[in-house]
Amino acid sequence: MLQCIFLLSEAGEVMLEKQLTSHKVDRSICGWFWDYVVSQGGDSTKFLCRVADVLSDYLGGLNEDLIKDNFVIVYELLDEMMDNGFPLTTEPNILKEMIAPPNIVSKVLSVVTGKSSNVSSVLPDATTSCVPWRKIDPKSSSNEVYVDLVEELDAIVGRGGILSKCEVYGEILVNSHLPGLPDLTLSFANPAILNDVRFHPCVRFRPWESEQILSFVPPDGEFKLASYRVKKLKNVPIYVKPQLTSSAGNCQVNVLVGIRNDPGKVIENLTVQFQLPSCVGSADLKANHGTVNVLAEKICSWSIGRIPKDKSPSLSGNLVLEQGMERLHGFPTFLVGFKIVGVAFSGLQVDKLEIKNVASRPYKGFRALTKAGEYEVRS
């Protein structure tokens, strides 16, 4: 049983406090929470992850400004998600029937009418269903279901091109518009590569534990079926080779970008960013492909887009150091961004999706997307 929830800012200050039982918990508990509770894991941290997912879905993100702008809705959500310290309703699709998501119109009406509550006076049908994440009888004319594998590649490439970290964080997203009470089974060709798997409450745990298949009755609409990690990958799709030579108050910069491990699909929206050292007075940088801009706070952004077939993109130029500085004493870290449509870089492959308890044969669609997460190249 949970007794309280605190939402903290990045500075560690309590932005929002929700006491869930009659016993009031002092804020000083936040000091040792991460050292003790997170290390132990358990249902409390699982529920907090669920709260974070719901708030992010409702507010379009999760940061200090969004929380402060939507205090009322956050309190209303916590009221519905917990009952005297025990989890109650945690499915976003059902919560949205109970509490209207924030928008410009609702904010204007609350100011004009003086009504601040967003809670519906009608209880959703799903609260009386045997599967509380799904409506009793959803009516859908499309009769279709889509499964998306969305992955983020986290990598650290050290000096000399040595790969010190490479792993994927992935999510299995489902958009279901099936009538009645369908029963779905999703299987993979290589489920053994998955680590740290987290499931939506609709997933039956025993079939996964015994056969590593996902068996579930889906909510109606969009939802995250599961998340996972694939660790210790051996390759990255692209290489970034920075070379910086500093002497006599200047620093020569050369950066070469190319494809290292061809994913079989086009690499799009390729960008390279790095922070110019504080001792740099001016920069003259040019690229043979794409555009180079020095943004606020001395951040250099190189937008490449797609890698051309006839040449490797390169950036070169000179950094002039401030007076009195002979050479750079620290070199920047390069942050890489990209997107690959149609590829799950982890190698995870969907084997089949079986659908039962439906009157007619539904349409099934599968897509994959890989994008850069925390992709760093150190110089």
UniProtKB/TrEMBL annotation:
Residues 142-378 form the MHD domain. It comes from the Eukaryota. It holds the Pfam family Adap_comp_sub. Gene3D superfamilies: 3.30.450.60, Mu homology domain, subdomain B (2.60.40.1170). InterPro entries: Adaptor_comp_med_subunit, AP2_Mu_C_sf, Clathrin_mu, Longin-like_dom_sf, MHD. One of its GO terms (cellular component) is clathrin adaptor complex. Keywords: Membrane, Protein transport, Transport. It is found in: Endomembrane system. GO terms for biological process: intracellular protein transport; vesicle-mediated transport. PANTHER family: AP COMPLEX SUBUNIT MU (PTHR10529). Belongs to the adaptor complexes medium subunit family. This is MHD domain-containing protein. It comes from Vanilla planifolia (Vanilla). The lineage of its organism: Eukaryota, Viridiplantae, Streptophyta, Embryophyta, Tracheophyta.
